[in-house]
Amino acid sequence: MPRRLLSAVVALVALVAGACGDGGDGAGEADAARVVKIGVVAPLDAGLVDFGRGIRNSVQLAVDQANGRDAIPGWRIEVDAADDSSDPAKGEAAAQRLAADAAVIGVVGTYNSGVAARVAPVLAGAGIAMISPGNTDPALTLGPDAATPVRPHPTYFRMVAADNVQGPFLAHVAFDDLRARRVAVVSEAKAVSKGLADAFGAAFRAKGGAVVFTRTVPDRTTSYGDVVRAIAPLRPDVVFFGGEYDVGAEFTKQVAAGGVTVPVMGGDGLKDDKYIQAAGPASDADLASSVGAPAGSLPSTQPYVDAYARAGFGEPPSDFGAYAYDAANVLIAAAAGALAGARSVTREARAATVAAVQATDTAGVTGRVAFDRFGDTRTKVLTLYRVAQGAWKPFKTETVS
After folding, report:
1. 54 by DSSP, 3-state: which?
2. Is residue 327 within 8 Å of 131, Cβ to Cβ?
3. Which of 25, 77, 183, 207 has the smallest set of CB atoms within 10 Å of its CB?
4. What is the mean pLDDT of the chain?
5. In angstroms, what CA-CA distances link 196 with 78, 169, 186?
């Protein structure tokens, strides 16, 4: 074949192949699915890792299932999990990295409210929906003055009841069910811990109880001798602690060693198996609230519990895993609509995802999933647990209006 004719044939074949490859409208890209990412910001390497790893794993489970059913046609969903080590500065850096990634359409996290305060503005600036499975600081949705609420970030949502609900629930159970009339209240200084303790104390007083001692200590305090010595002669019926399980266990051991033999009570940050392991026998009869109903007690949660077990994750889901799973599925459903016919994750797609999350009203494994105008959950379920025989046992579950 003459060289000139051969060149013409090669050019024609290349032209035809190119036309067949994209059809003139990018259709060829369907053979290689586009990538959209769900970010996770949680304590994975340090901090409250028992909570963070269960959150990450639950998001991965939701994404794996979604890819299996082609939940977003033409797109493959990936999880981009970033560690915050329960450190606000690390959380902010993680959020900046995720916000700069054009493939990220939503984020599940954080666990810590203090981290969320730094993460939420970053993601809001990028127009990225953020759904927390664990934050409880009311200021994240209502602003600094709950009496005149103003939503700080229209992209921020939470799956669980905040401390302005959890604190009164704990006070109600302490007064009405435990018959406590005198309490001592100790908390770390960070906003979420002090906020819960303040809400508990105010609600307990409103019911007619007496708060005989109040003390705010620096975060990560390890020595409570002076606090215990001050509490002991006051003979409270319950000692309330505002803080997480790692610090709370040390507090509880020192309370017991100081001769104060009444139960220690706390919020969702206290309710973890590591608390019992670290505090040992001193934790017996202690109490802590947590989000939702006990795992497996609702028929809707069992498929999630079974699927999580089959997936073979190295860590348990914690009480926040099911909420992270529901949060991921909300983002996936929202993204499916926002990305229909799209070629990339645009700012408009992110905005459409936020709008779809706000409009969500669906049945999740944790129950009804819907958000009010501030981004708070419309389903506020709390359970109080008590330590018995070295394990947390459900004591009372309530749906709070």
Report:
1. helix
2. yes
3. 25
4. 92
5. 35, 11, 11
| E strands present in 264-366 | 264-266, 287-291, 361-364
Render the burial of 336-347: b for 16+ CB within 10 Å, e for the rest.
bebbeebeebee
Query: What is the Cα 19 distance to its own chain's centre?
Result: 48
Q: What is the per-residue pLDDT for 17?
A: 38
Tell me the backbone φ, ψ of residue 392, rounded to 5 degrees: -75, 125
| pLDDT tens sequence across 89-128 | 999 999 999 999 999 999 999 999 999 999 999 999 999 9
- Asked if the model's pLDDT at residue 18 lies above 90, the reply is no
> What are the pLDDT digits (tens) for 288-344?
999 999 877 889 999 999 999 999 999 999 999 999 999 999 999 999 999 999 999
- In 100-181, DSSP assigns E strands to 104-109, 129-132, 156-158
pLDDT tens, residue by residue, 123-172: 999 999 999 999 999 999 999 998 999 999 999 999 999 999 999 999 99
Nearest CA to 240 out of 183, 173, 279 is that of: 183
Of 247, 254, 322, give the one whose Cα is nearest residue 51.
322
Q: Which two tokens stand for residue 119?
A: 């993460």
The strands making up 104-109's β-sheet, listed across from edge to edge, are 75-83, 34-42, 104-109, 129-132, 156-158
Burial of 10 (0-12, 13-18, 19+ CB in 10 A): exposed
Which of 90, 233, 161 minimizes the C-alpha distance to 400? 161
Query: Superfamily for 164-291+383-399?
Result: Response regulator (3.40.50.2300)
Instruction: Give the chain's count of helices (H) and strands (E).
Output: 13, 14
> Looking at the domain that runs over 33-160+296-370, which CATH code has it been given?
3.40.50.2300
- For the chain, residues classed under CATH 3.40.50.2300 are 33-160+296-370, 164-291+383-399
Cis-peptide into 377, omega within 30 deg: no
- Using DSSP's 3-state secondary structure scheme, residue 317 falls into coil
